Amino acid sequence: MRSRALGFTLVELLVVMAIVAILIGLLLPAVQAARESARRARCGNHLRQIGLALHQYHGVHQRLPPGYYGTLADYTGPHWTWSAYLLPHLEQRPLYQALDVVGQPFAGGVSFAPPIAAAQTRLEVFVCPSDTGPDLNHRKGLYAKSNYRGVTGNLPLLTTTYEDMTNQNGMIYLNSAVSLETIPDGSSNTVTVGECQLDPLAVGHVGALWAGMRGSQGGSIYISDTMWFLDSDEAFRINGSGDQAFSSRHPGGAHFLFADASVHFLKETIDGEALKRLAARNDGQPLGNY
Description:
Layout lengths: L9 H52 L17 E2 L1 H4 L7 H7 L36 E2 L5 E4 L1 E4 L10 H4 L25 E5 L12 E2 L2 E2 L2 E2 L2 E2 L5 E2 L24 E6 L4 E5 L4 H8 L11
């Protein structure tokens, strides 16, 4: 009797490989979706930590921190920003002291801030896990990036005069000193901080910085380093085409921190007027559904 060799034929192997490929193709989107869901949850948690830090700062100072402090004579120069003032409330007191936020002007007060080594420190709480941009913001002087920017309101910053910048209707702007107890529209109806992604190339969304506003150059004040406005215009709504627009890598929208320290995911398809109502703390208009 002749023995028969055991094994798979070429056709059988090809069928098995095809089945495995199909299964992987079906499984991969589910794995990617689960990973993004986890990253999105971590991003929301980062904003909640920032919200708690804002409330702790408010408990000490009876107001929220400003976008930055500046006088008519120096407001166009580099300044520490709201997120730098939060460092002691985010378990970063040693870094806060090393930077000497209280005693020294940001970047020495030069007209346009060069990189500072300590301000190139990646701080996890200011980074969205879904953001694909580098840790050092290559669009903003190689400072450590932040994916969270303060909301100045809904008034387009077409000019950056001292008067315009100190009379915004949001929560965080030049010399702002907003008290949570005196928000006319209510803290649960007003956004304070929103996501801003950093695209990895030399085009696209520019992200933000946690350390400061770098100053002015070429006739522009780089306030998008730390804060920006929301508008119904296509360029400045969520995931808008403007490089400073509030934006994220999460499909369909971006996280926003509200003044009551709650975090909500706002869809990029939100009605433009509802978006403007959320950005303003004192417009007195009904909000409606969003």
